[in-house]
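Case 180 in the screening queue. Each case pairs one protein sequence with one candidate compound; here the compound is magnesium ion. For every case the pipeline is the same: read the inputs, emit a complex structure as tokens, and attach any notable structural observations.

Predict complex for case 180.
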Amino acid sequence: MIVNDVKEILIGKEELNAKCRELGAMISKDYAGRDLVLVGILKGSVVFMTDLMKEITIPVMLDFMAVSSYGADTKSSGVVKIIKDLDMDVEGKSILIVEDIIDTGLTLGYLVEYLRARKASSIEIVCLLDKKERRKVEIPVKYRGFDVPDEFIIGYGIDYAERYRNLPYVASLKEEVYTK
Ligand SMILES: O=P(O)(O)OC[C@H]1O[C@H](OP(=O)(O)OP(=O)(O)O)[C@H](O)[C@@H]1O
Ligand code: HPA
Ligand SMILES: [Mg+2]
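Case 180 output:
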């Protein structure tokens, strides 16, 4: 059972739902009257994206990018690989990148620079979790959910070696799982 590998539940279902409602209300107010495109960063953002978009009350368009830098490791490789690009032409539209976690900041730093060439009217970030202690690149985050400690995080879409994404809460992973 995957729950046996959980060290500690850090953020429960109710807290996650309440945060999505709060962020959804802010985004709905701030982006009213604009062409908003939510860009989910696969795969980690899928659960957050799904819950967040249901709390947004203005029209939104969805697109996804897939990037990977962690693979089956607990440390970033430092090389951000784009596996899937945007499908949509975002010129003149307001991009809101939906991300699950910022750790070193390398993924979002690379993505924001990469997306600049698409001539969107704005590029902002909503990120559920922030592991501030490990930051290597400063990232301007417009909407932030929770701070998390410097532990390996799993659940609510977030994986270790592709597992644990289906846990309904945010948790830390037992060290023995990735050090053995
Ligand atoms: O701030 P950073 O140190 O760059 O780390 C954050 C990124 O790492 C994870 O993605 P991962 O590469 O594991 O891909 P995944 O979303 O498919 O799991 C996570 O979903 C973020 O996109
Ligand atoms: O703590 C984490 N867990 C899973 N994926 C991650 N990518 C960056 N940090 C993490
Ligand atoms: Mg991952």
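Case 180 observations:
- The domain at 2-179 is CATH 3.40.50.2020 (Rossmann fold).
- The pocket of PRP (ligand 1) is lined by residues 41-44, 68-70, 76, 99-107, 159 (CB under 6 Å).
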